[in-house]
Amino acid sequence: MSFEMSFDRMDFYGLGIIDVLPSAFSDLDRSYQNAIAFRFIGSDTKAAFVLIADGLDIEMGKELGNILVSKIAGQLSEKEGWEVSISPPQVWGCEKLKTIPKASKELQFELRLADRTVMVPVLLFNGETVHV
């Protein structure tokens, strides 16, 4: 996953705007208590984790994850030739998050809602042993 991904500003169901930011995220910040995990179907070794900040509803996190990881899967299909789709979202709690290795690629998104801005890191795994 060495290529650069490009994302346009995305609407989040009229509730806010999603922008991609330069990644300033390094390794797993242990302050995140939950993640939404996705497996790239069509590959045994590719996965994505959308880290959910405290105060962001898990159901909203699943929807946000679906949007972001679907866009990522589309770009991987287009630029890398991967023929993948994504699995349904799975919620991973704090203890399970501690078991994942360092990501192959990290992306940083910003969700701007009417009342707050939430940073949304996405960790991508390619070839590591991550069972989602």
Count of DSSP strands: 8
Number of domains: 1
What does the radius of gyration come to? 14 Å
SS content category: alpha+beta
User: Segments where pLDDT lies below 50 for 5+ residues?
Assistant: none
Q: Would you list the SSEs in sequence order as H and E?
A: EEEEHEEHEE
What is the CATH top level name?
Alpha Beta
Fourth-level CATH superfamily: CheC-like
Biggest β-sheet strands, sense, barrel: 8 strands, antiparallel
Would you tell me the overall average pLDDT? 79
Tell me which CATH architecture applies here.
Answer: 3-Layer(aba) Sandwich
Distance between the termini: 19 Å
- Morphology: globular
Can you tell me about this structure?
The chain is α+β, with helices and mostly antiparallel strands and 132 residues long. The protein has a single domain, classed as Chemotaxis protein chec (3-Layer(aba) Sandwich). 20% of the residues lie in helices and 36% in strands. It is built from two helices and eight strands; from the N terminus they run E-E-E-E-H-E-E-H-E-E. Strands 1, 2, 3, 4, 5, 6, 7 and 8 form an eight-stranded antiparallel β-sheet that branches. The two termini are 19 Å apart. The model has no long low-confidence stretch (mean pLDDT 79).
